[in-house]
Write a structure and sequence with these properties.
mainly beta; globular; 11 strands; four-stranded antiparallel beta sheet; about 55% strand; single chain; seven-stranded mixed beta sheet
Length: about 120
């Protein structure tokens, strides 16, 4: 199994930046893709960005495209989410998740890290 631990959340002013990290351990070699999700109070969990490891293909939700960047450091078994020009609407708990194969959904989750953007 893959184990995920997020870090880097916090309080930031609108227009500022944060960099989230997700350290993965365990059977990371078998992972098909990893992603960042977020969930605000009273709202459904939303896919923010994902990365398919073969070829490093990435995709983003329309709301963050051009502001957020997902990346990885293979040597450190770590996935990052660089968040620039943050807006109050970005306030949420951010989760990283693992997709074991193309036949699985994102069913391995970290504990989440809170991001709060003040106006």
């Amino acid at each position: 199994q893959v184990q995920l631990v997020e870090s880097g959340g916090g309080l930031v002013q609108a227009g500022g930046s944060l960099r989230l990290s997700c350290a993965a351990s365990g059977r990371t070699f078998s992972s098909y893709a990893m992603a960042w999700f977020r969930q605000a109070p009273g709202k459904d969990r939303e896919l923010v960005a994902d990365l398919i490891k073969s070829g490093s293909s990435t995709s983003y939700s329309d709301s963050v495209k051009g502001r957020f960047t997902i990346s990885r450091d293979n040597a450190k078994n770590t996935i990052y989410l660089q968040m620039n020009n943050l807006k109050p609407e970005d306030t949420a708990v951010y989760y990283c998740a693992d997709r074991r194969t193309s036949l699985h959904g994102y069913d391995i989750w970290g504990q989440g890290t809170q991001v709060t953007v003040s106006s």
